[in-house]
């Protein structure tokens, strides 16, 4: 039996209020750096839990920490991210989002929690409820951290830069822990020591042509055709320059050019997401992109050199091995067959690690299954798992339960792995 089972069983949590909180969050998502109402709701929930929480708000705009000091021992940080995506939801759930809001550039966007951050927030609040109720069973300090702007891979760095550990007096944690919901079967948790997730570079490229009439392309330089050639040619960088078996991804997520059917525009913009697992691989990909773009512009007689702008970047996530092995052992004891090793590196990226690397502390991040169990089992039997709605899909929607309970218990179990067994 799990050594943490008694704490969870002796302090059973009524999940109904948290399920309601989750549905409200899901129906009211907010974009990166715009999580104002979400932060207010989180802070209010924390205040209702206990007057013993030392709550600090407004870190990097909307970030929150709630510190609970419970005697001598190690300090553990538990993190959840709060932001949503500029995506129109198509789940048709009773609590689906129909919200639109302006992003940081002033553009109005549809908004959806298509990456499960609403589940992360609610699971952390539920974990806080369990840990506060069972305070007599453990000793140490816990920091409950709610982070903005993970989707822009800049929120963690933003909190650190704004003085998380200095101005806001956040205790330096001995270990930083976090999780992410996935489209795997609900009720399961997945750990992997060492390299877990890719790093990312978000890049904007502006290429230049010569505008003209759509009927007279010979008198113009068409940046749309140039962009089309660039998109196709970029796909060869991974297939021909990255060593087979290594993780590398180059995705052109957006192309913007022109305003009319019969006008050849003067320029075009491409927005790229580049994934890598080593610094050397990052250099191969970024250098390759620049080389391809310059060559295509030269071939098309572009009148001006392209402009490259890297907006955000984060390093690959490499779980501390001893820390992750300790968490994995606790998960095995607590979840039994529900704990599974993750065999592959995840090509998606996360900025979670910057909360730990900024202060030279170890960290562990794991994945949490969220897809409905019956539907998952049916698809597995049919061989149709590839058709599951993935993260960032307009159809992505975790099963509220048992995902929420599993997520809360995973955070509690991981935290108690490093805290003293009883209060001194």
UniProtKB/TrEMBL annotation:
<dbReference type="InterPro" id="IPR017439">
    <property type="entry name" value="Amidohydrolase"/>
</dbReference>
<dbReference type="InterPro" id="IPR011650">
    <property type="entry name" value="Peptidase_M20_dimer"/>
</dbReference>
<keyword id="KW-0464">Manganese</keyword>
<feature type="binding site">
    <location>
        <position position="180"/>
    </location>
    <ligand>
        <name>Mn(2+)</name>
    </ligand>
</feature>
<keyword id="KW-0479">Metal-binding</keyword>
<dbReference type="GO" id="GO:0046872">
    <property type="term" value="F:metal ion binding"/>
</dbReference>
<feature type="binding site">
    <location>
        <position position="392"/>
    </location>
    <ligand>
        <name>Mn(2+)</name>
    </ligand>
</feature>
<feature type="binding site">
    <location>
        <position position="115"/>
    </location>
    <ligand>
        <name>Mn(2+)</name>
    </ligand>
</feature>
<dbReference type="GO" id="GO:0016787">
    <property type="term" value="F:hydrolase activity"/>
</dbReference>
<comment type="similarity">
    <text>Belongs to the peptidase M20A family.</text>
</comment>
<dbReference type="InterPro" id="IPR002933">
    <property type="entry name" value="Peptidase_M20"/>
</dbReference>
<protein>
    <recommendedName>
        <fullName>Peptidase M20 dimerisation domain-containing protein</fullName>
    </recommendedName>
</protein>
<feature type="binding site">
    <location>
        <position position="151"/>
    </location>
    <ligand>
        <name>Mn(2+)</name>
    </ligand>
</feature>
<dbReference type="InterPro" id="IPR036264">
    <property type="entry name" value="Bact_exopeptidase_dim_dom"/>
</dbReference>
<dbReference type="Pfam" id="PF01546">
    <property type="entry name" value="Peptidase_M20"/>
</dbReference>
<feature type="domain" description="Peptidase M20 dimerisation">
    <location>
        <begin position="199"/>
        <end position="296"/>
    </location>
</feature>
<feature type="binding site">
    <location>
        <position position="117"/>
    </location>
    <ligand>
        <name>Mn(2+)</name>
    </ligand>
</feature>
<keyword id="KW-0378">Hydrolase</keyword>
<comment type="similarity">
    <text>Belongs to the peptidase M20 family.</text>
</comment>
<dbReference type="Pfam" id="PF07687">
    <property type="entry name" value="M20_dimer"/>
</dbReference>
């Amino acid at each position: 039996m799990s050594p943490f089972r008694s704490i969870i069983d002796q302090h059973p949590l009524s999940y109904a209020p948290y399920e309601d909180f989750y549905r409200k969050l899901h129906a009211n998502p907010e974009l990166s750096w715009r999580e104002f109402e979400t932060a207010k709701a989180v802070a209010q929930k924390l205040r209702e839990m206990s007057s013993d929480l030392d709550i600090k708000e407004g870190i990097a705009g909307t970030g929150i920490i709630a510190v609970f000091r419970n005697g001598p021992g190690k300090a553990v940080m538990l993190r959840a991210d709060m932001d949503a995506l500029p995506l129109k939801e198509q789940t048709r759930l009773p609590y689906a989002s129909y919200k639109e809001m302006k992003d940081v550039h002033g553009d109005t966007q549809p908004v959806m929690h298509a990456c499960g951050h609403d589940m992360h927030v609610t699971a952390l609040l539920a974990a806080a409820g369990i840990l506060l109720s069972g305070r007599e069973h453990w000793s140490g300090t816990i920091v409950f951290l709610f982070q903005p702007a993970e989707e822009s891979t800049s929120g963690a760095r933003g909190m650190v830069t704004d003085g998380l550990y200095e101005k806001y007096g956040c205790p330096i944690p001995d270990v930083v822990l976090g999780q992410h919901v996935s489209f795997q079967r609900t009720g399961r948790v997945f750990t992997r020591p060492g390299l877990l997730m890719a790093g990312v570079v978000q890049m904007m490229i502006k290429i230049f042509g010569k505008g003209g009439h759509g009927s007279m392309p010979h008198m113009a330089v068409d940046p749309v055709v140039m962009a089309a050639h660039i998109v196709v040619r970029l796909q060869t960088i991974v297939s021909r320059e990255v060593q087979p078996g290594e993780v590398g991804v180059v995705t052109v997520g957006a192309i913007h050019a022109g305003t009319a059917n019969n006008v050849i525009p003067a320029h075009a913009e491409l927005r790229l997401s580049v994934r890598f697992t080593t610094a050397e691989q990052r250099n191969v990909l970024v250098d390759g992109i620049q080389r391809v773009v310059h060559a295509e512009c030269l071939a098309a007689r572009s009148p001006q050199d392209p402009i490259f702008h890297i907006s955000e970047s984060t390093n690959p996530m490499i779980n501390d091995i001893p820390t992750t092995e300790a968490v994995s052992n606790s998960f095995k004891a607590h979840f039994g067959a529900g704990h599974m090793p993750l065999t592959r590196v995840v090509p998606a990226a996360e900025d979670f690690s910057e909360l730990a690397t900024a202060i030279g502390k170890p960290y562990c991040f794991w994945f949490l299954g969220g897809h409905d169990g019956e539907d998952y089992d049916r698809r597995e039997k049919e061989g149709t798992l590839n058709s599951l709605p993935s993260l960032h899909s307009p159809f992505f929607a975790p099963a509220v339960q048992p995902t929420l309970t599993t997520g809360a218990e995973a955070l509690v179990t991981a935290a108690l792995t490093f805290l003293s067994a009883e209060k001194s």
